[in-house]
Structure formats: structure tokens, C-alpha cells
Amino acid sequence: MNIYFCGSIRGGRQDVNIYQRIVKKLQQYGTVLTEHVSSGSLSEKGEDGDQAIHDRDMEWLMMSDVIVAEVTQPSLGVGYELGRAVALNKRVFCLFRPSSGKVLSAMIRGASTNSLFQVQDYTEDEVESILEKYFDTIAKN
Ligand SMILES: O=c1[nH]c(=O)n([C@H]2C[C@H](O)[C@@H](COP(=O)(O)O)O2)cc1CO
């Protein structure tokens, strides 16, 4: 299974430790095409070559079977990826931590109207078990 992980880069890297836990867990279920998003050495500057980044990531998005996004730290790039994923009819799972004190964009929470696009509130300690539950469910469908 190809998995596309979305997380904030230029939107801010404060959640990188949780991105690492998510990617490590996702690697039990398939190939994470965007493993670099969780890299501790990738700064808020991001990678070089914006057009190449965009074109590579869109190709990976098209190749993916499921998109998992950590959406607590707002990111234009993640929002764009999610919109493109919806347009491609992809399966999307968004993870949000209410304990951050932030309120998730209505354009993300409000898009969760069917089982293809799900938003899950969670706490940091349950991140692995939430992913286990999700992948168990999609394996049965
Ligand atoms: O260097 C990059 N590499 C990259 O793959 N991205 C993609 C993957 C992330 O899920 C998303 C982050 O967007 P942003 O940088 O706007 O927070 O965009 C974004 C950047 C920088 O914008």
C-alpha cells in the first residue's frame, strides 16, 4: 500500500516529533512516499526547488492509496494536498489534537461527510492506537 503523509513544513515544524511517530507507525502498513515530512533535519525552510517539490508530491499523491494528514499545525501546503486528494477521490484520514487549543478549519472538519474523508480528534499518547484502528477498518472495507 502506498501512503502519503502530510504535515506542516513551512507552516511550522513544532509537531515534528509526532510526525515521526505517525510515519513510523504507517510504515507497518505500507510505503510512506513522503517520509521526508517527518525528518528532524528538515527545517521550516523546506526543500529546494518549489516546482519540483510540487510536481513530485502531486505524482506521489496520485500514486497513493491513502492520505494521512496531521492537521493540528496549520499549513497551506497540507490544505492544498487535502483539496487535491478530495478531487482525486482518495481515502483521507486527518488527525487533529484539540489539546493544542487551536480550532480546526471548517474546510477540513466540514469536509468529513463520508467515510472516504475522516477527521479524528486524538491525544498524543493514543496516536499509534488510533492509526491501528483506522487501518484495521480500511482493511475490512
Ligand atoms: O519542502 C517541502 N516539501 C514538501 O514535500 N512539501 C509538502 C509536503 C507537506 O505535507 C506539505 C507542507 O506544506 P507547507 O510547507 O506549506 O507547510 O507540502 C512542502 C515543502 C515546503 O513548502
TrEMBL record:
Q: What keywords would UniProt list here?
A: Cytoplasm, Glycosidase, Hydrolase, Nucleotide metabolism, Nucleus, Phosphoprotein
Q: What is its main location?
A: cytoplasm
Cell location: Cytoplasm; Nucleus
Q: What is its EC number?
A: 3.2.2.-
* Superkingdom classification of source: Eukaryota
A GO molecular function term, named singly, is: identical protein binding
Binding positions for substrate per the UniProt entry:
Y4, F5, C6, G7, S8, I9, R10, Y19, E81, S105, A106, M107
InterPro entries membership:
2'-dNMP_N-hydrolase, DNPH1, Nucleoside_deoxyribTrfase
PANTHER family linked to this entry: 2'-DEOXYNUCLEOSIDE 5'-PHOSPHATE N-HYDROLASE 1
The protein's matches in HAMAP family, at most eight in alphabetical order, are given as:
Nuc_phosphate_hydrolase
Summary of the function given for this chain in its UniProt record: Catalyzes the cleavage of the N-glycosidic bond of deoxyribonucleoside 5'-monophosphates to yield deoxyribose 5-phosphate and a purine or pyrimidine base. Deoxyribonucleoside 5'-monophosphates containing purine bases are preferred to those containing pyrimidine bases.
Q: Which family does it belong to?
A: Belongs to the 2'-deoxynucleoside 5'-phosphate N-hydrolase 1 family.
| Name listed for the protein in its UniProt record | 2'-deoxynucleoside 5'-phosphate N-hydrolase 1
